[in-house]
Task: structure prediction
Amino acid sequence: MEAAEGVEYRVVARNSSTHSENRIHADDVARRYGFRGGLVPGVTVYGYAAHAVLQALGTRWVERGVTRIRFLTPCYDGEELVVSVTRPALAVMAGERKCVVGSASVSDAGPGRVEVAPIPALPAPEPDERPVASEDSLHPGAVLGSLRLATDPAAAAAYLAKIREPSPLYAEEGIVHPALLLEGANLALMVNVVLPAWLHVESEVRHLRAVRVGEDVEIRSRVAAVFERKGHHFVRLDVVWLAGGELVAAAEHTAIWQLAGS
Result:
C-alpha cells in the first residue's frame, strides 16, 4: 500500500513466543516488570517492518540493505501495528504509541568493500553447561560459541507463516527472510548463557547478499560492549553471518540482559 509520503503496512501483532525460554514473552512474568502482558519479540516486529521496507526499496534491500531499528515501547499480542517507511526513516506505531524508530537504505558497497573485524569460530556450550549471564560471562571481547541457523525449506516456510509475510518474493525466489537471520543474533545469546527475562532493544544490520534457502549459515558473535543505564544491564554484540564460509551479513545487536529489579 502506497501512503502519501511513502509505504504503509498494517498487521496485527502476534506473540508466538509465549513458551520461549525468554519469559518476558509470558504474561505473568512480563507483568512483574510492569508490562501489561507478554511482549511480542522485537525480531518479530522487525519481520513485520521488513515487509514495508521491501515495498519501499525493492529486492536490492534484501541483497545490500542497511537497516537500523530501535525499540522504544513494547508491542502486544492483538495490537494493530502500522509500519511506515518514508525513505530512509521507518517507524512502527500501535495506535498513538510509537514502538519503533529506525532507518533503511541500500548500500552500494559490495562484500569486498565492507570491512568487518573477523570473529573466530568457537564451540557453543551444551545447553546444561551454559554459564549464567553475568559481567564475567558477557565481558567485552568475549567470543561466544558459534551456531548453525536452520535455513532448510521447512524452517524458511515456517518463518514466513509465523510473521504472515504477504510478499511472494521469499518463497518464489528461495530467499531466507532477513528477520529469520536476525533471530540468529538472539540465539547467539541464548545458546551461550542462561538469561533471566531479557529484551532485544536495538540492531543495525548490513546485508552483503541475499541468503538462499538451504545454505549452510553459521553465526559468530563477540561481546562488543556492556553498560548500565537506569538500573538495566545492556550487552552489545558484534554478529556476523557466514554462508559456506562467505560473509553475507553483519550486525551490531543490543539487548538488556538483566532488567532493573531482577
Q: What stands out?
A: The chain has one domain: 2-107+127-258. The mean pLDDT is 94.
